[in-house]
Amino acid sequence: MTERGLSFGDGLFETMLLRDGVAVSVDRHLLRLEIGCLRLGIKPPNIPLLRGEIDLLTRDHRNGIIKLIVTRGAGGRGYRPAADMTPTRLMMLFPPLNAVDGKPIEVRWCATRLARNAQLCGIKHLNRIEQVLAQNEWDDERIAEGLMLDTEGELICATAANVFLVADGVLVTPDLRFSGIRGVMRERVIESALRAGLAVEERAVWPDDLTEATEVFVTSAIRGIRSVVALQERRWSVGHITQMLIAAA
Amino acid sequence: MTERGLSFGDGLFETMLLRDGVAVSVDRHLLRLEIGCLRLGIKPPNIPLLRGEIDLLTRDHRNGIIKLIVTRGAGGRGYRPAADMTPTRLMMLFPPLNAVDGKPIEVRWCATRLARNAQLCGIKHLNRIEQVLAQNEWDDERIAEGLMLDTEGELICATAANVFLVADGVLVTPDLRFSGIRGVMRERVIESALRAGLAVEERAVWPDDLTEATEVFVTSAIRGIRSVVALQERRWSVGHITQMLIAAA
């Protein structure tokens, strides 16, 4: 009850894919976790120690989803942390998802908006009521994801994925200067596109940019790159750039 | 680890004063909790059951602080809640604070801003990283509270209290249409002022309104009404309206 992860969402998390015995992009995930700790003023965990714990956790498994939570710890006086808190580390291995990779998906708009706060954006902290409310908006299994706008109407992300679009041959993704999470797969896709010689723009994106785009896809560390082929009345086919990025992932 | 209060801050809390064996304003606290549950789509707890549990918890005590957490429960798939979740209830009694009632305080400005999201404002949900970061900004014990602006620069509240000011004889408090918590003591003070025949305005408040005010005070269920007598270079004396409201509380 004095655990600050529970009391205030005062911590961070990571969700990683275990594939064929390998924790995919584990270095990137742990780097984001470390950056998140620094941003929140939480003592960052010892990274080699965490890697050792992940090895132990996954030793007898080939595939699954690794979830990691780091909080500021237990105690403090109300909102105020104590001077020298010992962070809490939690780690859990979940069974793998049914194979979904590469399958095109249908998405919807969410009514739930994302608040803007430059101080908290980018990192994967534990204050996630907005995402919970957004996913709770629909239960039609044909809809794989919901797109979220911020309170000013900018397109930010899907509920559990980043979003990309192709416009005039340029790969575009929201710049996340006020909200959203800097996804590990988002980063990998940007690097992969740049390596392939594509122009990439991180900028403010509005709903009209999306509907006018020639290709749309969403990315997540757990579900990979998924081509978006339907949003309400709008239809897309799986585009060349999306296919190329899926093949390169 | 699948407890959604910990994973996503997917729940609500209340902090109540136990004074002379009585849980002060318990009905108002439980009503706010119920409203919060409805706003987040969490099954509201049975209120008579909660009251019975509070009685049990406090049976052998005269004074203290009652903390109550209600979350959506354990489970679900990622952010998405399961269809019929059983909420988690947690309750704890903390020792009373040293007497602070009525003592004038010095406050500061916080650099940490509050995000705007009309969907989440007013209720006492568990996504409180902003308040944690704000209280973590100072450790000078002479400063009792920090005032918080939202991302647009409106004055919203103190880190763990609501804020009131007196301007031209009118009692003014931020209207909390985009952020902040509707405090139980805030509500009691408004009612008490109206009963005393005062004009009360809930409206957008800006830092200049505060520095130009003739009286300023902050309110919380735990610490009561505290007159603000210093903010950086600005000094106030304890005003008549503040004194009247403290006497009426």
3D architecture notes:
Two copies of one chain form a homodimer. With 249 residues, chain A is α+β, with helices and mostly antiparallel strands. Helix content of chain A is 27%, strand content 29%. Chain A contains seven helices and 13 strands. Chain A has helices spanning 4-8, 26-40, 47-58, 129-135, 184-195, 207-212, 240-248; strands at 11-19, 22-23, 64-71, 88-94, 105-109, 143-149, 155-158, 162-167, 170-174, 200-203, 215-220, 224-231, 234-235. In chain A, strands 5, 6, 7, 8, 9, 10, 11, 12 and 13 form a nine-stranded mixed β-sheet that branches. In chain A, helix 5 links the parallel strand 9 and strand 10. The radius of gyration of chain A is 18 Å and the shape is globular. The mean pLDDT of chain A is 96. At the A-B interface, helix 1, strand 3 and helix 4 of A face helix 1, strand 3 and helix 4 of B.
| Rounded Rg of chain A | 18 Å
Global structural class of chain A: alpha+beta
Counted beta strands of chain A: 13
Average of pLDDT of chain A: 96
Helix content of chain A: 25-40%
Order of helices and strands of chain A: HEEHHEEEHEEEEHEHEEEH
- Beta-strand fraction estimate of chain A: 25-35%
Shape of chain A: globular
